Amino acid sequence: MNEELKTLLSQPTASIPDAGRVCFGLKRQASYRAAKKGDIPTIQVGGNFYVLTSDLRKILRIEAA
C-alpha cells in the first residue's frame, strides 16, 4: 500500500475527488460521476458529500489497522 493511500485511509472521511484519484485512478469529474452512479459510496453532511474510508477499505478489501 502506498503512502498516499495510507494517509487517505487514516482519516474517517475523504473527498470524492481524492477517493476516486487515490483508490481508482479517476480524474475529478469521473470521480463525481462514479459517486453519482453509486460506484463510490458517499454520505451527505449538510450540503457536502464525503466518502467514508471504512467503505473504501471494504471495497478495496483492506483490513482496518
How would you portray this structure in words?
The chain is α+β, with helices and mostly antiparallel strands and 65 residues long. The protein has one domain (3-60). The protein has helices spanning 3-9, 16-24, 28-37, 53-60, and strands spanning 13-14, 43-45, 48-52. It has a three-stranded antiparallel sheet with strand order 1-3-2. Helix 2 crosses helix 3 (28-37). The model has no long low-confidence stretch (mean pLDDT 94).
Sketch the major β-sheet.
Answer: 3 strands, antiparallel
Write the H/E string, N to C. HEHHEEH
The number of domains: 1
* Sheet with most strands: strand arrangement: 1-3-2
Name the overall outline: globular
Oligomer: single chain
Radius of gyration: 11 Å
Number of DSSP E strands: 3
Helix coverage percent? 40-55%
- Quickly count the helices: 4
Q: What separation lies between the terminal Cα atoms?
A: 12 Å
Question: What structural class do helix, strand and pairing data support?
Answer: alpha+beta
